[in-house]
Amino acid sequence: TIAFERRGEGPPLVLLHGWAMHSELWGPLLPRLAQRFRVHAVDLPGHGHSAQLHAFTLDGVVAALASIFAADTRPLTVLGWSLGGLVALELARQHPGRARALVLVATTPKFLAGPDWEHGLQPEILDAFTQGLAGDYRATVQNFLALQTRGDERARETLRLLRSQLASHGEPDPRALRTGLEILRCADLRDDLPRITAPALVIAGERDRLTPASAGRELAMALPAARFKLIERSGHAPFLSHTAEVLAEVTGFLARYAGVVAA
Question: What is the pTM of this model?
Fold first, then answer.
């Protein structure tokens, strides 16, 4: 059910993309990462070349990933973006012995704002996207991409890249889009963070409109072994808009915590 591309040799590194996208979005990072890792660029269920899971939930995705890597007993380093970051956190929570290190880009433990969490998206915005999927899901996804780049100093180029990549690796299943939004609506991992002890690098975009930088700071503070990096003037996809800066942070962190030598 889960499709992924392997590249490079070395310790296993799993890449998990965000909602509505696919594994090819990691293209700008892959050449450097594949120099030191056996990279597994995963398509989440119903995205890219992966089939839709019967139960597309955090538990379901984690179970599918655990099954894929069951034969390789080495600890995994996991790099997750947005929804993929939530999956990475849940994988580390359920299988603490498998997670060697985490890189969490534009990731939040709770996507929606609430009375006790001011660092999230307003629920009515997610409601609008959910309603839009029932009408014109392609237009809804395009609007979501525009929100990802809003405020970024390189918004035009980053949005052009996101849009050009969107359907280049298989169009997302509308059912996966709906269930993915439900994961974002319901997930709340805040109480579990103190038990996720793997070293973590939390990267946030200063101008992110979906997962505010303050959410990344809170995440890094709650994780026992995390450091926080702010990418200035960046939106929700800093690895695309500020690739060199993100790569420098990621490779330096992995050299220290994932047992590899920085390229």
Answer: 0.96
